[in-house]
Amino acid sequence: MAMIRFEGVTIAYQKQTVLENVNLEIEKGIITTFLGPNGSGKTSLISSINGTIKPVCGKIYIDDKDISKLKTKKLAGIVATVPQLYNTNFNFTVLEMILLGRSPHIGYVPGKDDIDKADEAIEKIGIEYLRDKEFNRLSGGERQLVMIARAIAQDTEVILLDEPTSYLDLKNQLKVLNVVKQINSSQKVTCIMTLHDPNHALMYSDKIVMFKNGTLETGTIEDMINARNIYEVYGVKADIVKVNNKKFVIPDY
């Protein structure tokens, strides 16, 4: 069953077309990863789902609802976003940052239920030790975990993650991706990620959307991550090898 559907979507900036006539369905309750080189339109397409970017033509449907007809607050109750890197000029605590995710559900002041939801998200991510610390004083990996907790507290059907491993060391990359996998499996939230590393996509995805010179191809990780596609997308020769029943992309240096 399709959770998100693109019908004839074209995205352009100042008359320069980034993606043209996109027709794509994203399944409900799985992890779909967008793979492609820089500038291929991955972030643009993910931003069109939360309404940050408006297509110049075409329609986007979430659960059969045309998002162009949804008010911002209504859409925020359906889709949460974890950006690449988030900074704030305010000295919010971690709890306060996560409570911002409750905005679609509250009026002016968070209630007890909102604080409980925030604390539940903090517990799920395992960042109780950060609850009262200043967000701006956290490391990049800690900030990403807080932003994922905020997305969980937002209590949506879809979570978008734009380059969630950017600026993180290997340990924190794996921690963040494991958290995404855990959220998807335990809560059946539809997760859409943009990633650079095909190996991360192999390890943490159910479906792949590959961005090739303005066109999109989609399929399972078995179908999409192969030597031919890696070369066509990145211009890099690579072998696909199996170690302990796990597949890896090994580039030809």
Describe this structure in words.
- The protein is α/β, with parallel strands linked by helices and 253 residues long.
- The protein has one domain: P-loop containing nucleotide triphosphate hydrolases (Rossmann fold, 3-Layer(aba) Sandwich), CATH 3.40.50.300.
- Helices cover 33% and strands 30% of the residues.
- It has nine helices and twelve strands.
- The strands form three sheets. The protein has a six-stranded mixed β-sheet with strand order 6-7-8-3-9-10, sandwiched between helices. A four-stranded antiparallel β-sheet has the order 2-1-4-5, with helices on one face. Strands 11-12 form a two-stranded antiparallel sheet.
- A hairpin with a 2-residue loop joins strand 11 and strand 12 (246-251).
- It starts with a strand and ends with a strand.
